[in-house]
Amino acid sequence: MKVIRGNKEGHPTDNVIMSDNYVQIASLERKNFVGVAVTSSFQNVKGIREANRLFMDRRNEIQCMVNDSEYVCLHFSNEVAFTYIYCMQVSELDAIPNGMIGFTVPSGR
Predict the structure, then answer these.
(1) Which residues are CB-contacts of 38 (< 8 A; sequence separation ≥ 6)?
(2) Phi and psi dihedrals of 100, rounded to 5?
(3) Taking 80 as the threshold, does the pLDDT of residue 77 lie above it?
């Protein structure tokens, strides 16, 4: 692995190559989310702004938020299309507002 240090503008500051390769395995806990999803093709992207507006207007309807001042944008994609989800992390999926989706990201390493 080659790592070159840079400044905050992204320009290299020196030619230092770091040779210490340190790998750490992280364990991630299970998380629940509720939010607004949009699916679109890469060739004709539509609906992102509308989904964002809808989410921002209705996010106060989401119950059991873990942190009400922080939202998350998750995405899934393949070569043709993507799904983008504006969502809040919640402690429970008991009440999902009409027109929104609720889902769980399982724990993993």
Answers:
(1) 47, 48, 50, 51, 83, 84, 85
(2) -110, 170
(3) yes
> Which tokens belong to 89?
């992390």
Distance in angstroms (rounded) separating the CA atoms of residues 52 and 54: 5
How many residues does this entry show for the chain? 109
List the domain boundaries for the chain: 31-105
Nearest partner of 101 among 91, 88, 109, judged by Cα: 88
Per-residue pLDDT tens over the stretch 25-55: 888 899 999 999 999 888 888 888 999 999 9
Q: d(Cα 68, Cα 60) in Å, to the nearest integer?
A: 8
Enclosing H/E stretch for 72: strand 72-77
